[in-house]
Amino acid sequence: MKKSNLFQECKKLITPEIQRSVDISVDIANRILDILESKNMTQRQFAEKLGKSESEISGWLTGTHVFTTKTIAKIEVALGDKIINIKDDTRIPVVNISFLYKAPIPNCGKKRISRLPQDLKISFS
Amino acid sequence: MKFDKIEILLLEESDKVGVYSCKVNNSDLSEFELFLREYKDSEHQEAIATIMARIGRLMKDGCYERYFRYEGARKDRLFALPSHYDVGNLRVFCLVLSPNILILGNGGLKTTRTYNEDSWLYSCADFLQRLDKKIKYFEKSGILTLEGKTIGGKTLFKLKRNEKE
Prior knowledge:
The complex is a heterodimer. Chain A is mostly helical. Chain A is built from five helices and no strands. In chain A, helix 3 packs across helix 4 (about 55-60). The longest helix of chain A has 23 residues, at about 15-40. Chain B is about 30% helix and about 35% strand. Chain B contains three helices and nine strands, in the order E-E-H-H-E-E-E-E-H-E-E-E. Chain B has a seven-stranded mixed sheet. Chain B has a two-stranded antiparallel sheet with strand order 7-8. In chain B, strand 5 and strand 6 form a beta hairpin. Classes of the chains: A mainly alpha, B alpha+beta. The interface of A and B includes residues 1, 3, 11 and 26 of A.
């Protein structure tokens, strides 16, 4: 297949931010659709719950809408489910490790140490 | 009665989707490429990038109708692919022939309430609607096939011009 040069050239205009923005909007739309399906809720019922028109909801579900956090909150309440899950286990525990190496490293001199001796013992306290 | 010479050609493909456009009267560029050329170096560059990113996502997921804005009549397969609303109102018309086959056409800035009120956008949409009608006729006749992500058979043909334009 002979690829279109202009098509390829324009693909290069996509920045990581633009790609992420598109992906987030599409993912949100897909998530809403999944919840609607799992709850047997029609788009009309969803629109009524939110006090929106069906065409507005349909526009949201194309994955082109830029949702505000306020709208997301309203949708989550209407659906009774989360559409965005922010991990709360992202805090990685910090462990301070200190050790004292009491013996000289053999044959190292001023050379850079690429490998510690096999008999090196490290203790944690 | 006047006719345009049409050639349907593949622009890009993924595992799932074949993205096509068409050249009219031996033009150097396809209809979608003409759209890209018009806007890629303009103030709407971000919108073009967004549309390209959306096409990339469609190629990954499949061309499900929900990803498009329905623009045509009940009997056709005309849709529009809008950019994100925060980067302007640029839209490109397309035919979604199946979840695996997309034909991208031309488009432009939507400044009127409906595209029918804009002569350029109307001509872009009307062209694809006539093309869709022809493709359907060829499909029924068995001289053009849609198999998976591939358009096979007669991809070079004449299309009656809209004399009203």
